[in-house]
Amino acid sequence: NQGTKIKTQIEELEETTLKKMKSETDYESIDEFKANFLEDIQGLQAREKELKKEKAKLEQAQEEYIQYVEQNKRDVKQLENVTQELDKVEQALVQISNRQAQQQSKVETIKKQLEFETYEEAQKNIQEWKKEYDKLKETYEKAKQAFQKAKEQESEAKTTLRNMEKQEEDFIGESKEAHEKYHQILRDKDFADTEDFISNRLQEEEIERVKQDIQKYDQKVTQLQAALKSMEEEGIERIWIDVEKLENEKKDRTEKTQKVEEEKNNILYRVRRNEEALKNIQRQMKQRAEEVDVYQAMANVSKTANGKLTGKQKINFEMYIQRVYFMRVIEKANQRFHDMTGGRYELLRKAEDQDSKGKIGLDLDVLDNYTSKIRSVKSLSGGESFKASLALALGLSDVIQSMSGGIQLEAMFIDEGFGTLDEESLEQAIDVLHQLSEGNRLVGIISHVRELRERIDKKIVVRQNNQGSDVEVVV
After folding, report:
1. Are 78 and 190 contained in the same domain?
2. 242 lies in which domain range?
3. Rounded to two decimals, what is the model's pTM?
């Protein structure tokens, strides 16, 4: 490792120094040479300590980088899980949509089965039927009252008729009994008939008394006949009230009333059933609508994350995150690139078509402020491309360090690329690197460019020889 190499170099330097000491004749004394030698040794030991510190920092940076990579892997795995969950949500949304269609079909079927299309129409018909029912009920009550009155009159007439018939029967019986008694008396008295009795046996007073009895009898018969005639006439007038017809009308109206009542009850029952079904369907539709809204939002998130949302750029969630961080890197890189190019160039993320499938979006264009035109980054010269690459690398470093809990990149090595720069560009690149190294950051440059080696004060020079290579530390 680097520490072992440095230690080996120190040992070789001590051995070389001892060899030189044996043949050195320029020093005035051994003490002076020893003092110089010890001073060199102390300097090398101090340098060794610094290199060990740098080594520890590099190892720490490497460990933090490994942790960053592992965290990135976990984030990618979590993203895959989220994508799977979103796919499940999208499938659930399809199922909910199907269930909603089935519920809507059930609603249409129930509507077809209903006698009335709307609740208001059913209520209107119920009101009309209720009016007709009330009218029939009123007619029925009047007929019922008339029938009851007629029935009462009929009962009274029958009672009077029965009484008169009883009186007639009693009168006839009494008349017969009196007639039989009268004729029996005549027979007992040996009279042939009434005239024989009157002419032969009865005195004038008795004849007068019999006449009065006969007259009373005739009057009573006349009264009974007149009363019977009157009752017969009254009875004939009441017989015209057709009781059977009234009974039939009553029965018909009762049946109609019951039928209307049953229809009303059936309609009210169906209306209540339909109202309950409608409320249930509306409640389910509202619930389904809420579920659809939730799942629709989830579906939009899923489509957005998978780059499938209509009317939007077709980029998935991973590409979107990469673009966000890429734009941050470009923003930081342009701060360096602007200085390195004298304000001429500015890096831009390459725009893509609206219908692109999200497989692009991390490409670069460059804005030439001299011509105010945007062109491909591939049109840059070799030196300009190196500056752009260097600016992007530094921008990435700045973004990583600016993140909460980000890695502190305290050391950076740049390998080659300086040979493509002209004198002005090289000067601009070195100025940027000097600015970077002014803080606690260590910037290492690996290059064969002679001009660059001359501009760097502190360096490690590696020379190739027959045994391998030599390392020289220049402080």
Report:
1. no
2. 119-271
3. 0.37
Q: pLDDT tens-digit profile of 365-377?
A: 999 999 999 999 8
End residue of a domain, out of 246, 271, 296: 271
Q: Which two three-digit tokens encode residue 394? A: 């530094």
Rounded to 5 degrees, what are φ and ψ at 365? Answer: -120, 170
Structural domain ending residue among the three candidates 49, 73, 91: 91
Q: What DSSP character marks residue 458?
A: S
Q: Is the pLDDT of residue 29 over 60?
A: no
Tokens of 327: 């734009």
Residue 431 lies in a domain: no
d(CA 122, CA 417): 89
Task: Find the length of the chain.
Answer: 475
Q: Cα(331)–Cα(329) distance, rounded to whole angstroms? A: 5
User: Tokens at residue 40, please?
Assistant: 């060199």
Average pLDDT score over residue span 205-214: 61
Phi, psi of 446 (to 5 degrees): -110, 115
**Dihedral-angle region of residue 86 (phi above 0 means left; psi in -120 to 50 means alpha; beta otherwise):** alpha
Kindly report the backbone phi and psi dihedral angles of residue 373, in degrees, each rounded to the nearest multiple of 5, phi listed first: -120, 150
| Helix axes of 382-402 and 423-437: crossing angle, nearest 10 degrees | 10
pLDDT, tens digit (0-9, with 9 covering 90-100), for 375-432: 998 898 877 888 888 888 888 888 888 875 656 767 778 776 677 777 777 777 777 7
Bigger pLDDT: 12 vs 90 = 90
Question: What do you get for the CA distance between the two ends of the chain, in Å?
Answer: 21
Instruction: Report pLDDT digits (tens) over 31-69.
Output: 665 666 677 677 777 777 877 787 777 778 778 778 877
Distance CA 276, CA 452 (A): 90
Could you give the CA distance from residue 21 to residue 416 in angstroms, rounded to a whole number? Answer: 40
Name residues whose C-beta falls within 8 Å of residue 306's C-beta, 6 or more positions apart in sequence.
Answer: 83, 86, 316, 317
Closest CA to 40 of 9, 86, 71: 9
Distance from the Cα of residue 93 to its chain's centroid: 9
What's the pLDDT at 417? 65
Coil/strand/helix, residue 49: helix
pLDDT at position 224 over 60: yes
